[in-house]
Amino acid sequence: MSFGPPETYHDNWLDRLFIALFSHKIAQAVGTSVPSGGYGGFVALSKAIMAGRSAPEQQTVVAIVLRSLVPAPVLWLVRTLVSPTRWVCEANAWFATLMFQWLVGPSELRQVDVTDPQGTTRSQRSGVHIKKCRYLDESRCVGLCVNLCQQPTQAFFTRDFGIPLTMTPNFEDFSCEMVFGQVPDPLDQDPVYQKPCLVGECAQGDPQAITCPQVRSSPLP
């Protein structure tokens, strides 16, 4: 399957600031220099994190970075005092569409059905449809998407913030569905666990592997 060249983005000064900040935090976490090259340098740094690290180790690096962006007392207060009500989930979804375009590209809110841990289903506007994920489009790697984005981001919101989040990337059109309020499945029950490499697109891809070898590792504890 051929996906064509990655989309071209024209980052404004605020986008470039966020890219530089996130790159700096990742470089700090792995003890390397901050890359140049804007978003391309950020993705190149991500690929360097994958080299020589297991899936849990890759996810741990991103977990450290995400936690460094929010003071620990704030995380504790949100996790302790804020329940994942419909309003809270919808507010997080709205915030995500505004704040993360520099990372994932354009997105839009959607109405979704969410089932809570007690088995109750409710309809709410807490879904975020990422039309074509910039990170996946640029990296062209299933392992990078799962280990450096999906799994650590789900864990950060669900465990550190106490606001469940499920992310479902589509490796055929590079879109992604985010649902705030939905508890994610364990990795070995997630469809991404069975996805093969994007052969011909990913430099680390293994055309002989039935599933992406970077994903078939133990999840983040």
General description of the model:
The chain has helices at residues 13-30, 38-50, 55-69, 72-81, 86-99, 101-104, 134-139, 142-161; strands at residues 107-115, 121-130, 165-169, 176-180. It contains 8 helices and 4 strands; from the N terminus they run ααααααββααββ. The mean pLDDT is 89. It has one domain (13-194). β1 and β2 form a beta hairpin. The protein is α+β, with helices and mostly antiparallel strands and 221 residues long. The radius of gyration is 17 Å and the shape is globular. α1 (13-30) packs parallel to α2 and α1 (13-30) packs across α3. It has a 4-stranded antiparallel beta sheet.
Mean pLDDT, rounded to whole units?
Answer: 89
Q: How many strands appear in the DSSP assignment?
A: 4
Total count of helical runs of at least 4 residues: 8
Overall, the morphology is: globular
Oligomeric state of the chains in view: single chain
Uncertain stretches of 5 or more adjacent residues:
none
What's the alpha carbon Rg, rounded to whole Å?
17 Å
Distance between the first and last residues' Cα: 34 Å
Lateral strand order in the biggest sheet? 1-2-4-3
Based on secondary structure, the structural category is: alpha+beta
Order of helices and strands: HHHHHHEEHHEE
Number of domains: 1
Major beta sheet, specifics?
A: 4 strands, antiparallel
Strand content: 5-15%
